[in-house]
Amino acid sequence: MASSRLAVPSLSECQCQICLEILFEPVTLPCNHTLCKSCFQSTIEKATLCCPFCRLWVSSWARYHTRRNTLVNLELWDIIQKHYPKECERRASGKESEDLDLADNPVRGRKDNRKVRLIKVQYICK
C-alpha cells in the first residue's frame, strides 16, 4: 500500500477522459472513475446523475459530498500538482493543451474530439 503512494502517475494517467486535459481538481466517483471537477459538474448539470463512464447512479453520493465540500480527491490532486505543476498552471490559466508538445498523445488538444466525447457521454447517460 505504501509503495503505491510513492509511484508517480504518468501524465496519461492524470488525464481527464472527458475534456482530455490534465485532471484539475479531480473527482473520484464511488465506482473509482475520475474526472475533473468542472467536467463532473457539467455532466451533472447537463445529463443525469450517473457516472459518465459506467452509468453508476451517483446522485446521493454527489449531494453528500457537494454539501460537505469534499468532492475533490485531495490526495490525487496533491500528487498531480506536485508532479505536473506546469500543466496545472497552464490549465488554471485557461491555456489550451495545443500549446504543449502533442507527440505523446495526438488526440489531446483537439476540440472536435472533446465535442464528440461529450456528445457520447450525454447520450449514454440519458
Descriptive tags:
126 residues; mainly alpha; 6 helices; 46% helix; 5% strand; globular
Account of the 3D structure:
- The chain is mainly alpha-helical and 126 residues long.
- The protein has one domain: Herpes Virus-1.
- Helix content is 46%, strand content 5%.
- It contains 6 helices and 2 strands, in the order αββααααα.
- The protein has helices spanning 2-6, 37-46, 59-67, 74-83, 85-93, 111-125, and strands at residues 26-28, 34-36.
- It has a two-stranded antiparallel sheet.
- The longest helix has 15 residues, at 111-125.
- The chain is globular, with a radius of gyration of 15 Å.
- Residues 99-112 have low confidence and may be disordered.
- Residues 89-108 are annotated as: Disordered.
- This is RING-type E3 ubiquitin transferase.
- GO terms for molecular function: nucleosome binding; ubiquitin protein ligase activity; zinc ion binding.
- One of its GO terms (cellular component) is catalytic complex.
- Pfam families: zf-C3HC4.
List the helices and strands and how they pair.
Elements: H1 2-6, E1 26-28, E2 34-36, H2 37-46, H3 59-67, H4 74-83, H5 85-93, H6 111-125
Antiparallel strand pairs: 1-2
Termini separation comes to 38 Å
Main pleated-sheet profile: 2 strands, antiparallel
Alpha plus pi helix count: 6
The Rg value, from CA coordinates, equals 15 Å
Short description:
Pfam families: zf-C3HC4. With 126 residues, the chain is mainly alpha-helical. The protein has helices at 2-6, 37-46, 59-67, 74-83, 85-93, 111-125; strands at 26-28, 34-36.
